[in-house]
Structure formats: C-alpha cells, structure tokens
Amino acid sequence: MNQSAYIAQEDRYDNGMKYRRCGKSGVLLPEISLGLWHNFGEKDPLPRSMEMLHYAFDHGITHFDLANNYGPSYGSAEKTFGIAMKQSFHPYRDEMFVSTKAGYDMWPGPYGNWGSRKYLMASLDQSLKRMNLDYVDLFYSHRYDPQTPLEETLQALVDIVRAGKALYVGISRWPKQAAQFAYEYLAARDVPCLIYQGRYHLFDREVEEEGLLQQAKENGAGFICFSPLAQGLLTDRYLNGIPEDSRIAHDGRYLKPEALTDSTLRRIKALNELALRRGQTLAEMALAWLLKDDKVSSVIIGASSAAQIEKNLKALQNSHFTPDEIAEIENACKG
Ligand SMILES: NC(=O)c1ccc[n+]([C@@H]2O[C@H](COP(=O)([O-])OP(=O)(O)OC[C@H]3O[C@@H](n4cnc5c(N)ncnc54)[C@H](OP(=O)(O)O)[C@@H]3O)[C@@H](O)[C@H]2O)c1
Q1: What torsion, rounded to 10 degrees, do the Cα atoms 305, 46, 15, 94 define?
Q2: Measuring from atom 22 of ligand 1, which residue has the nearest CA?
Q3: Which of 108, 115, 210, 248 is least surrounded by Cβ atoms within 10 Å, i.e. has the fewest?
Q4: Paired residues of 163 in beta bridges
Q5: 5 occurs within a structural domain
Q6: 1: pLDDT confidence band, cut at 50, 70 and 90?
Q7: Quick count: other Cβ atoms within 10 Å of Cβ 50?
Q8: Residue at 7 is within a domain
C-alpha cells in the first residue's frame, strides 16, 4: 500500500456513531471503540488488520485501544498500528484518541513488568516508537501492582502527562480500594484519572457488584468496558459448534474450549432468542445492554474482520430495553 492509498470517508461522522462524555472530562468517546488485543499481531494478515482499522475510522470509531504486549508477539499490535499511523492515519491524528498500557510482562529481567516508574516510563517510550506517535491520548496502568508503592506508579503517570507523552491517564483492573487511592492521588496533582477500564459483559458483572462503575462516576472518571462480547461467546459464533477460524479454535490461552460448557451454551442460546425477538443479533444486544447504562463511556470491541465491526455498529440503533426485557435477560444469564 502506498502512502496516499487511504483517504478517510467524508461522511465518517454521519454514519450513526454517537459520542459520550468521558466522566467529567472534556473528552468525548465513541460509544464503540476498537481494541487491538487480538488479530493485529505480526502473524495476522496486515491487509485485514488495515481494512479493520480503516473501516472503524470511516465509521466514526475514533478511539483505538492498545497495550504494549498486544500481539503476539508482544509489541506487534502497536507496530501494526504504527504502520497504519504512517501510511493512513497521519493526516487524521487529531481526530483520533489512542490509548496504550503497561503492566504485564513485556521484556525479560526485573524492569519489564508490573508498576515501577522504571518500567512504565521505558515502556511508554517503546510504545510511542512502535506506534509512530509523539504522544498517546491515554496511558494506563494495566494492572494493580501489590509490591510497588501506589505513589510510585501514580507519580509516574503524573510525570508522563507533565512530560507531554500522554494527554490523560487511566487505570485498568485495579481493585476498588487501590482505585480510590488512585483517583484521589491523581486529582490532587491536577492530573485527574480520565477513565477506569474493566471487564464487563452480560456474563461478568464483577465491576457492578464491586461498585467499580459507581466509584468511577463518583470520582468524575469514565468507565470503559473491555471484552463486551465475552471474547465472542456473546455472539452467534458458537451456536452451532466451534468454527475453525474462531478465537476458541486458535487462541488456546485466553479463551479455551472449556469455556463453552453445556450450561454456557444454553445461556447463549436463550439470550440469542431474546435478541432475535428484539430484532437484533446477540452481539448487538450484548453491546446495547452495556450502553443502556450512562455510567458506561464506551465499549471496546475486538474483531477479526471488518464485517464484524459493521455488524456490531448496528447495536447503536437500539439500546433501549423495557423492564420486562431486562428481567428476561437476567433470567437467561442465570441459566
Ligand atoms: N485492560 C485489560 O486488561 C484488557 C483485557 C482484555 C481486553 N482488553 C481490551 O478490550 C478489547 C476487546 O477485547 P475482546 O477482543 O476480548 O472483545 P470482545 O468484543 O468481547 O470479543 C471480540 C471477539 O468476538 C468475536 N466477534 C466480535 N464481533 C462478532 C460478531 N459480530 N459476530 C461473531 N463474532 C464476533 C471475534 O472473535 P473471532 O476471532 O472468533 O472472530 C472477536 O475477536 C481488546 O482488544 C483490548 O483493547 C483490555
């Protein structure tokens, strides 16, 4: 692909994408964001990755979520994104909201993991190089580190903003008490936490039960849901077995065949019936169900094709649920 091959669609903001304010910040996020955890690594076909990125941006998806270790191999999703930045998105940088993270194992030795200042600073510098960016819009601590003083991790986030390497910071998967400390520490230094990133979908209500959604709101932060489709379980992907090209068939690490128990399949089928009655696919209903809550700023979908992104965007057409529908969905989730 040559450098002038991509021109963004002129009607990219007129295709039905809606934007929500992220907490009490000035930032608006698209209700559906795209994550590059899977399907953007070095083994994935680059033309398909590019097609997905182009399709997303052409349809109002302005937020792209990465992390240092997305791939495989580690770093390779950021490299793919860096190719897109250079070849396609360079003229559109100011229309994009790009996040990355550090917190999991990234390079060997004592400085390539967890939450030290040493690791976070070095990791972000590496990420910027891979992504061909001067700064990211959002940098996350990817996980809570029980061994490193929270002040050290959080001060690194503050200093990263002060150094102009990230415009905003966020936390992902931090437990409630540590998250409260983070909200207060960051606010006291005038670098308010923009957003909390947590796993939230029909089958996993932990962030609701732990009060993390409410806590983000009370602290003026947004909340962004990851794996909103339970990695594909909350779609029609597995209704009739395990397709060869599906995540269960080829991933082997994060989503294993064992996840598809008889009881889970029964719940998926019951939810699928309810979705069809609403005139939606299961994926659309699962995303719409999250978006009915105004504490949710955005949902980060993953995709293995542009067609999946296209289908999932239809969720935006109906995120209204009657009380009866909510009750039926709850019953179906319980199995
Ligand atoms: N902060 C964290 O610790 C953390 C952890 C995990 C994820 N994340 C973020 O969240 C993002 C999304 O995570 P995820 O990929 O697990 O999200 P997801 O949206 O729950 O699952 C995405 C997968 O579902 C399948 N799918 C999507 N749309 C479909 C459709 N319409 N019909 C059928 N199948 C469909 C595809 O799998 P197939 O391959 O089977 O087609 C796709 O790769 C990640 O990229 C990352 O940015 C963050």
Answers
A1: 140
A2: 302
A3: 108
A4: none
A5: no
A6: very low
A7: 20
A8: no
| pLDDT band per the 50, 70, 90 thresholds, residue 4 | low
Instruction: Give Rg (Cα) of the chain.
Output: 19
Question: Which residues touch 209 (CB under 8 Å, ≥6 apart)?
Answer: none
Task: Please give the distance, rounded to the nearest whole angstrom, from the Cα atom of residue 162 to the centre of ligand 1.
Answer: 32
Q: Which domain holds residue 31?
A: 19-334
Q: What pLDDT is stored for residue 252 in this prediction? A: 79
Residue 298 or 2, more confident: 298
Q: Whose CA is nearest to atom 19 of ligand 1?
A: 301
Please report, rounded to a whole number, the percentage of residues in the chain having pLDDT higher than 70: 99
Residue whose structure tokens are 């995120």:
319
If you measure from the C-alpha of residue 301 to the centroid of ligand 1, how many angstroms do you get, rounded to a whole number?
5
Number of domains in the chain: 1
CB-neighbour burial class of residue 259 (10 A; exposed 0-12, middle 13-18, buried 19+): middle
Q: What is the mean pLDDT of the chain?
A: 97
Sequence-separated (6 or more) residues with CB below 8 Å from residue 123: 68, 102, 106, 112
Asked if residue 2 belongs to a domain, the reply is: no
**Domain containing residue 289: CATH number:** 3.20.20.100
pLDDT confidence tier of residue 5, bands split at 50, 70 and 90: confident
Query: Relative to the CA of 281, which ligand 1 atom is closest?
Result: 31
Q: What angle do helix axes 176-188 and 150-162 make, rounded to 10 degrees?
A: 40
Residues in the chain, overall count? 335
CB atoms within 10 A of CB 68: 27
Q: What is the pLDDT of residues 186-230, one digit of tens each?
A: 999 999 999 999 999 999 999 999 999 999 999 999 999 999 999
| pLDDT score of 128 more than 50 | yes
- The reply to whether 9 falls in a domain is no
